[in-house]
């Protein structure tokens, strides 16, 4: 048994070493502005899928030879992957809280808020009218789903509900905002709290009902070029693009707000 | 035979027709209460199929199965009221010997305690009272066979079927188990049908033999009759006789048989006319280096086809012309005559040793 | 009997020296399976373990996981054993297709399975709308929904395992039972089932393990609510969002409990069979 543990420990060390080597050596050291055959790796929150894909195309257009590779996912998962040493150039998170472990660990410095997202009440498009204000979510017999407290949209929902003094017994606390949207789309839930950008992307099936309390729970989206970015020059340029007027226009069109 | 028995109310009267793509079984079987009928035949003859058809495990295309006057032909196996002992006994491995025997009683609706008590009696009856709690894997072959027999008999079947009940036993225990089985079968009041490929088992256990070849009945009768008067090459081989077919014409002292195919003649002391079988034992064949004198005897010149030791005797195959025959001689005779494959000898059989009976 | 026992002892005597060609990949495979576990153990926050385990939501999720996985296993047995019997013993047109369909949940991403369950058994689902209208039953967001989601993904394991056992079982035992007067149901209950019991046990263990670890179909179909639908894997996933250390603790708890249960069951079965 002791021998097994020793072997396991040795293997763990080996794997860790391999991982570290990866972060340090992979990719060429970037020279700012130059393009030829480079790949820019961007980790971004799932809610940014549509807008960042569009911006990425634009970036590739203005930087011939550069390929932008995205990894969209839950912000905290992405943050974990970055702190575990994934070779990433840019990280865009859905909340300052999920950006924090990355800056704390020194993997990034000075993140900038590039967009804000506010909550709306998502209701099935066919049943619009049942819910017109936040207080309606407290009605008995109404199936409401929220994000889990651990994820940004859940934290925001908690703040908004507290601000409105509304008590909700949710049927479920979903793992992310897309899951909330799915439940509303399929009619399993009568209402759910999602970001405006998400409701907009699902406009065919879901109607987003605005409510004033959402002002108390506006979510900031921070972005940062990572300190160990393999393509540090390109990384800074991509962050610039997101912060530019073009970036703002794209985001606003998708339902985000400018900071 | 079957016509006669079918008029009786008791026992088994069956006509089994089973059709398969390359095989057809068409067999009439009859057994009186208390009678043991053995189905004897080579592999693939259909004897096991016949037994399974009696049990209802194989669907029949036509015919009937009447037991004690009731037609079981349309009933599923579980409602036929039969008992069956399978070739490797098929004792349920997860049940004790006692519960194996009690199984059929439970199926008849008897309570757990009562069926166990009855099963215990049966185990005692077959001498296995102290193995009641043993699982089948802990039993010897002979013990397993006795449990299987007790299991089949416990349901008080009107018909008992035994599929090669001795085949799974080694030669050492076989003799003893066979004698015991014979005693138990003798005590069984219903009809019993036994399938075997071993003529000795059939002779010892059965009152009546039915020989099946290619799905058809080729010969039936009491064991002694079959042993003395085989009617097919298969039966002749089983009982160890040389058998020929021919046409007999009676003379002053017995008859002369012209063998079928014009391959020779055999004289016999039996006086008979017409189509006949001629049989003689290999032991009655004498071999000589040169043509022997004296008569009346059948004498022919033959070529040695094979020489094979069998116990304390040597079996010599004599090839034709005029015909093929087996001869049993002593090892001393083999040396004396210098017998080997391809050598020629003179063979003789006394007319009194050949047995002629109508075909 | 004697033949079998000699074969067994022969196996034992040759088992001493496995060839290197087998030993090397075997040990690599073992290491591949065990190392991630070692990773969890190495990184576990042992000092705070006690307090974390005492948290009520952990015990609640654990209890829910054990209850739902067990209920799902029972449901799998009730539905899966007859289905396996049908596939193994009844000749019908399209049996191959049915067999392929049975394995669908194995290849289907569990999340998709969850969506599919919603489309059928959800409040607006093909069947679910009638359940709601007639009986007032809604399965999503309920513990029953968790059991159904787990059953959906675990059922193929049971069916495949039991069907294999049924195919390998000697049909002549069933014939012997029939000649003794046992009807088909009695034959199934008193002969077939005991004969394939090891296969059923193996299938049930796989089933239970799969149900215990189920995440995707559960969170999609039944949602996530502490005490009702939040099983350990869901709790682990959400803990990972904010507190990876807590996630490791939860994973270890799940692992430890399942290993203990499986080891205990295995001993029981081995000693009774």
Order of adjacent strands in the largest pleated sheet of chain A: 2-1-3-10-4
Mean pLDDT across residues of chain A: 83
Low-confidence stretches of chain B: 1-8
Order of secondary-structure elements of chain A: HEHEHEHEEEHEHEHEEHH
Largest sheet of chain A: 5 strands, mixed
Query: How many helical stretches of chain A?
Result: 9
- Overall structural domain count of chain A: 2
CATH topology name of the largest domain in chain B: Rossmann fold
Strand content of chain A: 15-25%
Tell me what portion of residues of chain B adopts beta-strand conformation: 25-35%
Alpha-beta content class of chain B? alpha+beta
CATH superfamily of the largest domain in chain B: P-loop containing nucleotide triphosphate hydrolases
Structural class of chain A: alpha/beta
Annotated CATH homologous superfamily of the largest domain in chain A: Periplasmic binding protein-like II
What does the radius of gyration of chain B come to?
25 Å
- Percent helix among the residues of chain B? 25-40%
Task: Name some characteristics of this structure.
heterotrimer; B: alpha+beta; Rossmann fold; 2 domains; 6-stranded mixed beta sheet; 10 helices; 20 strands; 27% helix; disordered N terminus; C: 273 residues; mainly alpha; 15 helices
Characterization of this structure:
The complex is a heterotrimer of chains A (about 260), B (about 350) and C (about 270). Chain A has nine helices and ten strands. Chain A is an alpha/beta fold and about 260 residues long. Chain A has two domains: about 30-115 and about 220-255, Periplasmic binding protein-like II (D-Maltodextrin-Binding Protein, domain 2, 3-Layer(aba) Sandwich), CATH 3.40.190.10; about 120-215, D-Maltodextrin-Binding Protein, domain 2, CATH 3.40.190. Chain A has a five-stranded mixed β-sheet with strand order 2-1-3-10-4. A five-stranded mixed β-sheet of chain A has the order 7-6-8-5-9, with helices on both faces. In chain A, helix 3 packs parallel to helix 4. Residues about 1-35 of chain A have low confidence and may be disordered. Chain B is α+β, with helices and mostly antiparallel strands. Chain B has two domains: about 1-235, P-loop containing nucleotide triphosphate hydrolases (Rossmann fold); about 240-359, Beta Barrel (OB fold (Dihydrolipoamide Acetyltransferase, E2P)). Helices cover about 25% and strands about 35% of the residues of chain B. Chain B is built from ten helices and 20 strands. Chain B has helices at about 1-5, 45-55, 95-105, 110-125, 140-155, 170-185, 200-205, 225-230, 235-240, 330-335; strands spanning about 10-20, 25-30, 35-40, 60-65, 70, 80-85, 160-165, 190-195, 210-215, 215-220, 240-250, 255-260, 265-270, 275-280, 285-290, 295-310, 315-320, 325-330, 345-350, 355-359. A six-stranded mixed β-sheet of chain B has the order 6-7-8-3-9-10, with helices on both faces. Chain B has a five-stranded antiparallel β-sheet with strand order 13-12-11-14-20. In chain B, strands 15-19-16-17-18 form a five-stranded antiparallel β-sheet. In chain B, strand 9 (about 210-215) and strand 10 (about 215-220) form a beta hairpin. The longest helix of chain B is centred in the middle third of the chain and has 16 residues, at about 170-185. Chain C has about 270 residues and is mostly helical. Chain C has one domain (about 55-270): MetI-like fold (Orthogonal Bundle). In chain C, about 80% of the residues lie in helices and about 0% in strands. Chain C has helices spanning about 1-15, 20-45, 50-55, 55-90, 95-100, 105, 110-120, 130-135, 145-170, 170-180, 185-195, 195-210, 215-220, 230-240, 245-270. The longest helix of chain C is centred in the first third of the chain and has 34 residues, at about 55-90. The model of chain C is unreliable at about 1-10 (pLDDT under 50). Chains in contact: A-C, B-C. The interface of A and C includes residues 5, 76 and 183 of A.
């Amino acid at each position: 048994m002791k021998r097994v543990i020793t072997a396991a420990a040795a293997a763990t060390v080996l794997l860790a070493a391999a991982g570290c080597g990866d972060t340090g050596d992979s990719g060429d050291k970037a020279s700012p502005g130059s393009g030829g055959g480079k790949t820019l790796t961007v980790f971004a929150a799932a809610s940014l899928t549509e807008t960042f894909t569009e911006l990425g195309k634009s970036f590739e257009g203005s930087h011939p030879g550069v390929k932008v590779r995205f990894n969209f996912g839950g912000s905290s998962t992405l943050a974990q992957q970055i702190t575990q040493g994934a070779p990433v150039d840019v990280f865009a998170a859905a909340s300052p809280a999920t950006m924090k472990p990355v800056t704390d660990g020194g993997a990034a410095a000075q993140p900038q808020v590039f967009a804000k997202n506010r909550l709306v009440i998502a209701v099935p498009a066919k049943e619009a009218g049942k819910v017109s204000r936040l207080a309606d979510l407290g009605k008995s017999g109404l199936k409401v789903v929220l994000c889990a407290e651990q994820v940004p949209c859940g934290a925001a929902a908690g703040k908004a509900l507290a601000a409105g003094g509304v008590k909700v017994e949710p049927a479920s606390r979903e793992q992310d905002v897309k899951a909330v949207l799915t439940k509303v789309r399929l009619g399993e839930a009568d209402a759910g709290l999602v970001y405006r950008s998400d409701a907009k992307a699902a406009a065919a099936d879901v109607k987003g009902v605005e409510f004033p309390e959402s002002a108390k729970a506006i979510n900031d989206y921070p972005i940062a070029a990572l300190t160990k970015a393999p393509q540090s020059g390109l990384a800074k340029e991509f962050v610039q693009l997101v912060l530019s007027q073009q970036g703002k226009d794209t985001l606003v069109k998708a339902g985000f707000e400018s900071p | 035979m079957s016509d006669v028995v079918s008029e009786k109310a008791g026992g088994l009267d069956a006509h089994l027709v089973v059709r398969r793509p390359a095989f057809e079984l068409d067999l009439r079987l009859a057994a009186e209460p208390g009678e043991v009928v053995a189905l004897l035949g080579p592999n693939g003859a259909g004897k096991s199929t016949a037994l399974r058809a009696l049990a209802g495990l194989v669907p029949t295309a036509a015919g009937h199965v009447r037991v004690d006057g009731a037609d079981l032909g349309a009933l599923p196996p579980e409602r036929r009221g039969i008992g069956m002992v399978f070739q490797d006994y098929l004792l349920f491995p997860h049940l004790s010997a006692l519960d194996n025997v009690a199984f059929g009683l439970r199926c008849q609706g008897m309570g757990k305690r009562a069926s166990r008590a009855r099963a215990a009696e049966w185990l005692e009856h077959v001498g296995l009272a102290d193995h009641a709690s043993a699982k089948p894997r802990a039993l010897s072959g002979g013990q397993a066979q006795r449990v299987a027999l007790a299991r089949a008999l416990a349901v008080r079947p009107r018909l008992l079927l035994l599929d090669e009940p001795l085949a799974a036993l080694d030669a050492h225990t076989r003799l003893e188990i066979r004698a015991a089985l014979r005693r138990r079968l003798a005590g069984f009041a219903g009809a019993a049908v036994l399938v075997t490929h071993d003529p000795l088992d059939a002779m010892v256990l059965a009152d009546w033999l039915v020989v099946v070849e290619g799905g058809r009945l080729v010969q039936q009768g009491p064991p002694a009759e079959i042993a003395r008067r085989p009617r097919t090459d298969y039966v002749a081989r089983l009982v160890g006789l040389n058998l020929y077919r021919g046409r007999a014409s009676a003379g002053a002292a017995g008859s002369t048989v012209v063998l079928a195919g014009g391959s020779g003649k055999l004289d016999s002391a039996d006086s008979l006319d017409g189509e006949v079988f001629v049989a003689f034992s290999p032991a009655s064949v004498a071999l000589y280096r040169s043509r022997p004198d004296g008569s009346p005897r059948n004498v022919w010149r033959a070529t040695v086809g094979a020489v094979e030791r069998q116990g304390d005797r040597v079996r010599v195959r004599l090839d034709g012309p005029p015909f093929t025959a087996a001869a049993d001689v002593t090892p001393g005779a083999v040396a004396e005559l210098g017998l080997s494959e391809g050598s020629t000898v003179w063979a003789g059989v006394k007319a009194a040793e050949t047995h002629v009976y109508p075909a | 009997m004697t033949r079998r026992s000699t074969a067994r002892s022969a196996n034992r005597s040759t088992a001493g020296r496995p060839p290197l060609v087998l030993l090397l990949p075997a040990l690599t495979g073992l290491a591949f399976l065990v190392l991630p576990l070692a990773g969890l153990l190495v990184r576990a926050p042992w000092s705070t373990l006690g307090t974390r385990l005492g948290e009520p939501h952990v015990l609640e999720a654990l209890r829910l996981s054990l209850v739902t996985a067990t209920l799902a296993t029972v449901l799998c047995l009730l539905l899966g054993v007859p289905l396996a019997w049908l596939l193994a013993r009844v000749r019908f047109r399209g049996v191959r297709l049915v067999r392929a369909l049975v394995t669908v949940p194995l290849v289907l991403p569990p999340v998709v399975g969850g969506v599919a369950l919603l489309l059928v058994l959800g409040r607006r689902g093909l069947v679910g709308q009638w359940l709601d209208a007639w009986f007032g039953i809604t399965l999503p967001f309920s513990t029953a929904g968790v059991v159904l989601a787990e059953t959906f993904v675990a059922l193929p394991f049971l069916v495949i395992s039991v069907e294999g056992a049924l195919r390998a079982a000697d049909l002549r035992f069933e014939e012997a039972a029939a000649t003794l007067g046992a009807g088909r149901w009695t034959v199934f209950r008193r002969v077939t089932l005991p004969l394939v019991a090891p296969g059923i046990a193996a299938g049930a263990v796989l089933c239970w393990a799969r149900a215990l670890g189920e995440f995707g179909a559960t969170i999609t179909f039944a949602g996530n609510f502490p005490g009702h639908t939040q099983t350990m894997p869901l709790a682990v996933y959400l803990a990972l969002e904010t507190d990876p250390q807590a996630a490791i603790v939860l994973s270890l708890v799940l692992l430890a409990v399942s290993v203990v249960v499986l080891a205990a069951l295995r001993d029981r079965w081995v000693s009774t069979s």
